[in-house]
Specification:
single chain, 294 residues, mainly alpha, two-stranded antiparallel ribbon, 13 helices, 2 strands
Length: 294
């Protein structure tokens, strides 16, 4: 539903571009008047130019949630208590096996997962339930440990190391292709659309930034980005096919009428009792408004 509304808002904004271009030319030397006329046009059409920001905010919240799950799988997925995890950390510190392992400080749960699988006997005092639960937890995909941070300088270039390096690269490429496709469809739907300048540059910089970030966090985050971008691309493809120019025109007419009635209702509720008395109805208001009666 959120993607539907975002796509609908995007194509409706694209449909307004000819009118917006006309306003820019008409008020090229009066920016204040241009802003007023643009806001007036948005109000008449029932379009919110900032409406597409909500899905972006939601996607960022989801990303932070994914990061937390990737970094803390024992807490979020296996539901192991913090007290039990602290005891496992004490055992690791006392044994000295994590000496020199910087990830033990920054990613303690992923380190616990690794050390329990490598040295199950070390944690025998914590009970077989804990050891079995952690040892049997699968955080791999096709043999690739998604809890490991990808690096271009692995100890050995194994198949898993190559796959880890490819995850951030594929993530960036998929996002870049999605961006190019979105730009292409926007231009196709509105050939007169002005160039976005710095915004367009930023849209291409973001995939590069995501590659850099995916090399800084566990591979599970980049893996999530890949499938998230693929799913977004499929959604956009289907929604662009659904929102034909004829359908958008019909939706615009319907939403403009709905928005107009909302305005009439607001005015009626706030002022009818003052000017017309309590027996004056909303139907009377709309009828009189359409007939030019003040």
């Amino acid at each position: 539903p959120i993607s539907y509304k975002q796509q609908l808002g995007t194509v409706r904004m694209q449909a307004l571009n000819p009118k917006l271009s006309k306003l820019r030319k008409q008020y090229a030397n009066n920016q204040q008047k241009l802003a007023e006329e643009q806001q007036k046009l948005y109000a008449e059409e029932g379009v919110n130019p900032m409406g597409s920001c909500l899905p972006l905010i939601i996607s960022m919240i989801i990303l932070y949630g994914v990061l937390d799950v990737v970094y803390r799988p024992l807490s979020h997925i296996l539901r192991i208590s913090s007290g039990t995890l602290e005891k496992a950390k004490d055992i690791i510190e006392a044994s000295g096996i994590a000496k020199g392992d910087k990830s033990f400080t920054s990613r303690p749960e992923l380190s616990i997962l690794k050390y329990v699988k490598e040295n199950p006997d070390l944690f025998s005092d914590m009970g077989s339930d804990f050891v079995d639960k952690v040892s049997n937890f699968k955080n791999t995909f096709l043999g690739v440990d998604l809890g490991v941070i990808p690096t271009i300088h692995p100890d050995t270039w194994s198949k898993a190391a190559v796959a880890l390096v490819m995850i951030p690269i594929i993530s960036g490429l998929v996002q870049l292709l999605f961006t190019i496709y979105s730009q292409y469809k926007s231009k196709q739907m509105n050939p007169d659309m002005p160039n976005m300048g710095a915004m367009k540059v930023m849209m291409f910089i973001m995939p590069v930034f995501s590659v850099w970030l995916a090399f800084s966090v566990p591979a599970g985050v980049g893996f999530y980005w890949i499938w998230s971008s693929v799913f977004s691309f499929l959604q956009s493809f289907l929604l662009y096919a659904y929102f034909s120019p004829k359908r958008i025109e019909a939706i615009n007419v319907k939403l403009k009428e709905k928005n107009k009635n909302k305005i009439y209702k607001y005015i009626f509720v706030n002022y009818s009792n003052i000017y017309f008395g309590t027996n004056y109805t909303l139907d009377n208001w709309i009828l009189h408004k359409n007939n030019g009666v003040r």
